[in-house]
Design a protein that fits this description.
Number of helices: 9
Strand content: 15-25%
Distance between the termini: 32 Å
CATH topology: Dihydrodipicolinate Reductase, domain 2
Number of domains: 1
Strand order of the largest sheet: 10-9-8-7-1-6-5-2-11
Number of strands: 11
Largest sheet: 9 strands, mixed
Structural class: alpha+beta
Length: 345
């Protein structure tokens, strides 16, 4: 089954109920192509096959996590579909929440469908529910306006075919979520996705705490930015770790440098397409990288207050943003409330 798995919590439950009348859960494969990407699969290998990362993978060392799935294209010919979906349903409810779960889950007993799904469900249950009265504190939406791409003028969302001229459908969405468990208490998870943004890129950025005391007082800048681990999902699949280093010369000046691993440079051959891997898994009866019914329902339940708030007749219109930008200016204020800033991929 290809997404969407329902339109909201109630429709997802109804769909799962109908499917359950005909098939067992282990016969149903709800495909999310993001889970078939090589870098997403490697995320669990990075965490659990290397002894240096997992001890740091917690609130004592991680300050915040940002997950970005950005597209440079508009809705193209899918305006009518997008009017019914929007960015929250189209990308956030599935792709980005799946990535959050893979980042946040506890080590499964084995890399098999049951244990992996169970740990992802524990993450979903630990995410703090969204208060319907405080949606604006944890969610923000935007809509792209007209602009230029490659010197060519392109229409705004409301000028696209199949889109209402007064549409309030979001083409950009940002969330601030918290996972209330022992490992992640107090660590904000920032998720954002949008169309007509500055570039096509999907990545997970894990920003670590600063050193507790900077001993290099001779450095006029007072130090460097915190260490950051970036997992690039597309394009240029790979992993980059930013560390501080001394710039050559007589002065003690610190600069951030990147330790960069790229799949294409190391392994050469192009990785298989995500659907290739997932369809092969289905042939083999392996649903590890698929979505389970209870996870889907939990995801819809989590986002229900946001969907209801944005669908309300009196809800303010989405913030407009310029084509080719990184979203509405209000998104910067949204993350700045915690003293943070969006990472520019």
């Amino acid at each position: 089954m290809e997404k969407p798995f329902g339109h909201d919590y109630e429709s997802a439950r109804a769909l799962n109920s109908r499917l359950g009348e005909v098939f067992r859960e282990d016969q149903i494969y709800r495909i999310d192509h993001y889970l078939g990407k090589e870098t997403v699969q490697n995320l669990l290998v990075l965490r659990f096959a290397n002894g240096i990362f997992e001890p740091l993978w917690n609130r004592s060392h991680v300050a915040e996590i940002q997950i970005t799935v950005a597209e440079s294209i508009g809705v193209e010919t899918r305006g009518a579909y997008y009017e019914e979906a929007g960015a929250l349903r189209d990308m956030m409810q599935n792709h980005l929440l799946q990535l959050l779960c893979l980042i946040a889950l506890e080590p499964p007993v084995t890399f098999d469908a049951g244990p992996v799904h169970d740990e992802k469900n524990k993450v979903m249950r630990a995410i703090r529910p969204i208060d319907p009265r405080k949606v604006d504190e944890v969610a923000l939406r935007g809509q792209y306006g007209p602009g230029f791409v490659g010197g060519k003028q392109v229409p705004g969302y409301r000028q696209e075919k199949g889109v209402a001229p007064d549409s309030k459908t979001e083409t950009y969405a940002a969330l601030r979520l918290t996972v209330d468990n022992w490992r992640w208490a107090g660590v904000p998870f920032y998720l954002r996705t949008g169309k007509r943004l500055a570039k096509r890129v999907s990545e997970i950025a894990i920003r670590f705490h600063r050193t507790p005391h900077m001993i290099f007082h001779r450095d006029p800048a007072g130090g460097v930015d915190p260490n950051e681990l970036v997992i690039r999902i597309q394009p240029d699949e790979g992993v980059a770790l930013t560390v501080a280093a001394k710039m050559p010369g007589p002065d003690l000046k610190l600069l951030p440098v990147g330790l960069d691993f790229r799949y294409g440079e190391v392994f050469g051959a192009e990785p298989p397409e995500a659907y290739e891997r997932l369809l092969l898994d289905a042939v083999h009866g392996d649903s590890t990288l698929y979505a389970r019914a209870d996870w889907v329902e939990q995801a819809w339940s989590l986002l229900g207050p946001v969907l209801d708030a944005w669908a309300h007749d009196g809800a303010p219109a989405p913030y407009l943003y310029e084509t080719g930008s990184w979203g509405p200016a209000e998104a910067d204020s949204f993350i700045a409330r915690d003293g943070g800033a969006w990472r520019t991929p």
